[in-house]
Amino acid sequence: MKKKPIITFNSPVVLGLVIACFAVTLVGSLSGGRITHLLFMTYRSSLKNPLTYIRFFTYIFGHSDWSHFIGNASYLLLLGPMLEEKYGANTLMEIIGITAVATGIINYIFFPSVALCGASGIVFAFIILASFTGFRNGEIPLTFVLVAIIYIGQQVIEGIAFTDNISNMAHIVGGVIGAILGYMLNVQKK
Questions:
Q1: 20 to 30 A from 112, CA-CA: which of 6, 31, 51, 135?
Q2: Which residue, among 86, 73, 95, has the nearest Cα to 135 in the 3D structure?
Q3: Average pLDDT, the chain
């Protein structure tokens, strides 16, 4: 007798992140963006305000609109489960935390007039990290080189050539963190 297929909660960290982003985007949308601005967006504010420090992490849950959320959620759901299986839930949470805080602090220091929200930096860390899946000690995968050139190079060019509402800095920082951590994690395993 065949077993009926069941749906499993296969990637708790990634699914938790996407569910949290969905909930925050919904609440932000229902509040006309006020909740997002207050709690889920990082921007230059007083260092005496405790929310300044909280927002260095919580901004990854807020998204400017539904298309922003769907774009990030698609990549997170595509790449995240593979990364969570390879590196484990705790390591993936650390990667998310490091990327979020580093990007939030860099934005605060170097881009005082830019408000940042969304998980795009995490997405770019995941994209670069995923290119390390076939890593062997002493080798640099061609997939990593091509992904780095295509994704990070595109962000550098767009950051110079276009003025839009996209934080190319968050993408670049996320990609660099993904590259560094991907290399370190895979060298340690060998």
A1: 31
A2: 86
A3: 87
